[in-house]
Structure formats: structure tokens, C-alpha cells
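COMPLEX REQUEST
Ligand: glutamic acid
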Amino acid sequence: MTVRVRVAPSPTGDPHVGTAYVALFNRTWARRNGGQFLLRIEDTDRVRSNAESEKMIFESLRWLGLTWDEGPDIGGPCGPYRQSERVAIYLEHAKSLVASGAAYYCTCTAERLEGVRKAQDAAKLSPRYDRRCRDLPASEVQKQIDAGAKWVIRMKVPAEGECRFRDVVRGEVVFAWDQIDDQVLLKSDGWPTYHLANVVDDRLMGITHVIRAEEWISSTPKHIRLYEAFGWTPPVWCHVPLLRNKDRSKISKRKNPTSLNWYRDQGYLPEAMVNFLALMGFSMPGGVEVFGPADMDREFSIEKINAGGPVFDLQKLDWMNGQYLRKLSPDELATRLGPFGAAGHDAATVRRIVPLIQDRLRVLSDWTELTAFFFGDLAAPDPALLAGKKQTPAQVRDLLSRARPVLAAAEWTDAALEASLREVAAAAGVKPGDLFMPLRVAVTGRTNTPPLTATLEVLGRDRSLARVDAALACLA
Ligand code: GLU
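STATUS: Structure written out below.
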């Protein structure tokens, strides 16, 4: 059996981290088994689905390297892969269920359903369809349809008993049928609901393993019932735990950024993001935390998915991003920084700065803030910042005045500058830091920068001296 798996996002809103998370496990499972990974666009919600959102799904999954073997944009043997282009297929399947007695036409109006819901509410019953049309003679319902009544097709869910199935992550799962509604399969506009379209497509696209988020597990009995009604064998079910906020609620925009666009725009590296998402549901042997797709392809198995609800911890992601940022060669890092502002500057200067900031970057978009002083003009330094807590403006003025002629004459290399400035500090009877800190503030405007003398080397003599002079003027 060839493993065929899919991710089936709905193109509504921004591309979600959960989509990438599920795509990763599906894709890895396909690769591990020499199978195929499909991307299917579930755009049957005509109000909320939109082309822009679909485009962002493609882009963000590609950004992460989570590419697919078959999909709406690249085609494949089981297309089309966009549900809005398959409406006739669902209609035909829904009608076949009516013909076999597994589904029925329902002509109940929205007003009637609202009345039923209110009565159930008042009686403290859970809301559900009261099965009126299921119990009416079919000829009666047909008469209403012939008279122009609007209709939907609902599935017949067993009135009693249990639905039992095995889930790879959760073991045996049991739902009582009487908890499950007679789900609408086909809406009055002829379009399918998620349940019908999803099951029909999984079958027609040869999906062997449904690896999806845990939130769909309560839909699975309906899906199993549909498989039975069609006379099809269900796939293997594998519901992966939901990503969670720190308080363990389902990941939400209010508590965590959920859009993949946000992570890309912040400058998280795609490889760090993928590694981080992998860790959310999977542990490598020996607890290794930093690993790439090839390692995961080798070690991953759906049986190894952790059942615990993983907390989406941004601090951990920052740490992970740091691991990957530090591993890049300076040339590669310079390239990656291009879209984050580095492309606007002289390439040789950027290349000299990159090694100085590589250890300090949390995300690529830190570039501008960390390096602004290399490029623009500096505002006049703040005398309080120059003097710091331990020194007086007069002391700092003295130290900078001693440093100035030395800077004017020194060989302009990191090592030579360092040696010369240490001599200045020693001659003044202060610790090197007592000179380096005000000099740093003078030439960068900040207290927190890459090593001072390496920074001076990149800034160049003229600009450094001009900034020392501006600082001295402030301290006069
Ligand atoms: N369209 C569903 C979603 O947006 C697919 C769920 C499934 O994988 O069955 O996640």
C-alpha cells in the first residue's frame, strides 16, 4: 500500500501555524514511507474562502519547505484539488446515499429549526435536528420538494449504540451515537458541508492516513458512518494534539501570533520554525532538540507522536531561531538579511557587520535596530548615558580627550585599536571598561553593541572621530 496523506486547509484568513504543524507530520509520514503528500484546498465555505488566503497558504508552506506532490497549483492524478471545483462530485455522492437509504432530504425551514433549537434550549437538551424529515414518508418530503420547498440532504446517524474506532495517538475512542446529530451533507445551494466533501475526497484521492488536528476527532464518527454508508474502508485515523497557549487553551490570536506571515515577517528562519513545530509533537531519540527534515524523515513515525497538548512557547522558538541563525555562514546570513533592510546598503559593509551581530540577532528583523548606527547620522549623545552611573561628565570628558588623539593616529584595525585604547585606560588609571563604555556610547549612541573596537573598525576613522568630537561638545 502506498501511503497517501494530505493537509486540507480552508482558505480563510491568514495561514495558520496549525496548518504548517499538521502539514509537517503528514509530509514527513509520506516521505518516510515513500508515499505522497497532497495539498487540498477545502473552500466550500463560500462566504469566508478567498483566493488571497489560498495564495498565502501556498506561499507560507513553500517558505517552510513543506512542499506537496499533488495540489491545486501543480495538479496530479486525482484532481481537481480545490473543493469548489468538485461540487458536482459531492452532489452525485450525496444523492447516492439518499438512494441507498443512508441519507434523506430534509425540507425543514430555518424558522422551524430555530423553534426546535429554542425548545431544546428551554428543556436543557443539547441542540440537534429532531429528525422530523427522517421519520416522514419519503413521498411526503418529495411532494414538498416538488411544490418548491428548499431542501438539504442529511445523513442518517444511528439512533443508539456506539461508534468505536482506533486512533493512532489516542488508542480506542468511543462516541455514543445518540450524541451525534443527523449532519447536513449537502446544503440548499447544492454545495457540500465539510464532512461530505472531506470524506469523498479522502476516498477519491486515495488517502490512507488521515493525520489532522485533534479538534476534528468529534467529527470522525460522522466520517466513519459515511465510509460505511458508501461501502468504503476508512483510512487510519491519527489526531495530533492541538497547539496550545501557555495557559493550555487552544492556540489563539489573542495569546500568540498564529499567522505564519507574522513569523516570516519577523524573520524567524523557516528551518527553525519547522524544527520548532516538529518538537511540538515529536521527540528525537536521545532528546536531541535541533534536527533537520532529513533526521525527522528517518526517525519519525505516527506512533511516536506525543499525545500531550504541546505549548507553543515563543521563548523556545526564539532559542531555536538563535540556534539556526548562529549556524549560518556570514555570507548566507547577509543574504537572508537582505529583505530585512540589509539589501538597501553597500554589500561589502553589510558583510563586515554581519559577523559582529550574528550572536546578537534574535530574529532577522532585529537587523535595523542593531545596525542603524553604522549607517545613519547619530543624534547628539545623551550626557547622562555617556557618563553612566559610575562616572562624572568631567571624568568622561577627560577620558575621551585622551582617547581622541590616539584614535586619530592608531592603525585602524580591531586588534590595534583594542591595544591602543587599553593603553589609554591604563595611563589614565582606569579599567578598560571605564573608557570603552563612554566611547561606545559616543560612537553608537547605545550601551549595548557588538565589541567596541570591531565596531570602530567598521565605522571608520573619520566617522568615529566626528562622533567623539560631538560627544566631547556635549560634555563641555
Ligand atoms: N478543512 C479542515 C481544516 O481546515 C480539514 C480538516 C481535516 O483535515 O479533515 O482543517
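REMARKS: Residues 8-10, 42, 194, 198, 212, 216 surround glutamic acid (CB under 6 Å). Residues 87-240 form a domain with the Rossmann fold fold (CATH 3.40.50.620).
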